[in-house]
Amino acid sequence: MRTNYVGHDDMYKKNKAAGQAGWDPAEISEEVIKQFQELFTHESIPQACRLLELGCGAGNLSVGFARLGYQVTGVDIAPSAIEWGKGESY
After folding, report:
1. Domain range spanning residue 73?
2. Helix axis angle, 26-40 to 60-67, nearest 10°
3. CATH code of 36's domain
4. Is the pTM of the predicted complex or chain greater than 0.70?
5. pLDDT in tens, 53-90
């Protein structure tokens, strides 16, 4: 499967212009964060550690994990997504 990276950047521009919080609507990201919260309560998962989010987009999930106390680094190939994430506070 080939990925259209230029298309990803265009999608971020459209989503930002439409007032969305990132690639997915914020409600979906919050639900995913809740699911990860449940996973991270398992005794074998460190409660304070570093996370690397590949394909972080505008950083919705990265910010959510940071709020849970994790030290997060997000990486994305779309320049618009990175700039969007730098300028937003969630």
Report:
1. 5-87
2. 40
3. 3.40.50.150
4. no
5. 998 888 888 888 888 888 999 998 888 888 877 765 44
